Amino acid sequence: MNKTSTSQWYQVWVRFRKNKSAILGMVIFILLVIIALISPMIYDYNTDIVTQNLRNRLQPPTSEHPLGTDAFGRDVFARIAYGARVSLLIGFIVVGASLVIGGFIGAIAGYFGGILDNVLMRIMDIFLAIPQILLAIAVVAALGPGITNLIIALTISMIPAYARLLRSLILPLKDAEYVEAAKASGTNIWKIIFGHLLPNAMGPLIVNSTLAVGKTIVSAAGMSFLGLGISPPNPEWGAMLSEGKEYIRYAPNLVLYPGMAIMLAVLSLNLLGDGLNDALDPRLKQ
User: According to the model, what pLDDT value does residue 286 have?
Assistant: First the structure.
């Protein structure tokens, strides 16, 4: 990384850290990641997460169980901590895979244009005509519930949005002077696309991907709540909400705390995404 690039990213950090809400979002998100990473060091999956202990069922918060226990006597905090691993993992994998696949389609369509552009974008339009959550439900219904099929379903539903986004970013860049110079010097087409065009489109991609992780977490929780995502007894925030809804009158903590975990994750990512948008916007440099 050259000095100019380092200086640019430093300026982005300077603008970002002036945004207090963005810093708050980053801190909350880092705490969630830390909880997700250290949870296996604190709790045993078989003993604390999935094994039932009906003698301790529906206990209120205590020193031993800070957030109480669920209907099967399992520690709610331990399951939320492990659920963070599942929800964040799904969010990052889905966004990463859809960004790579959809970004490749959009970059190819935007750079080459013509018939190829029309064909690829019409295919994407077909998928975009179906609401994202309904498309994901249809894919899971065809493949069956489970974390792998849930990731595949959500990835397929997000690919068209990234294809459209990359195409819109590539179109105004492909006629830039540095691209023409690269063509004149005989630079390989793929090196132009991935070495010149994509790096100049990274700002909007970073912002959109940050926001998309939060959206994916909500979608995964919704699918699990409907019984189409993570199957019990595996911990996942949406599945925990689904299990706890029957006891909401007697043990509201079973839905309150998983719901708060989803809210904090999405809120932190939205604040972080808004802060990155402001920091990466060239119009706000002055």
Answer: 47
Place of tokens 């077909």: 126
| Dist. CA 86–CA 90, nearest whole Å | 6
Please provide the distance, in angstroms rounded to a whole number, between the alpha carbons at the two ends of the chain: 24
CATH superfamily assigned to domain 18-48+63-275? MetI-like (1.10.3720.10)
In sequence order, which residues have a C-beta less than 8 Å from that of residue 2 and are 6 or more positions away? none
Name the residue ranges covered by the structural domains of the chain. Answer: 18-48+63-275
Helices (H), 113-144: 114-128, 132-143
Using the predicted structure, report yes or no on whether residue 30 has a pLDDT greater than 90. yes
For 147-173, write each residue's pLDDT tens digit: 888 888 889 889 998 899 888 888 887
8 Å CB contact between 278 and 207: no
Contact 153, 133 (CB under 8 A): no
Q: Specify the higher pLDDT residue, 189 or 160.
A: 160
C-beta neighbour count of 86 within 10 angstroms: 23
CB 65 within 8 A of CB 71: no
**So what's the pLDDT on residue 263?**
92
**pTM of the shown model:** 0.85
What are φ and ψ of residue 229, in 5° steps? Answer: -120, -120
Neighbouring residues of 269: CB distance < 8 A, sequence distance ≥ 6: 25, 29, 210, 211, 213, 214, 217
The mean of the pLDDT values for the chain is 83
One-letter amino acid for residue 222 of the chain = G
Q: Which of 69, 190, 57, 215 is nearest to 132 (CA)?
A: 215
Among 36, 23, 91, CA closest to 272: 23
Of 167, 192, 191, residue with least CA distance to 179: 192
Structure tokens at 59: 């206990």
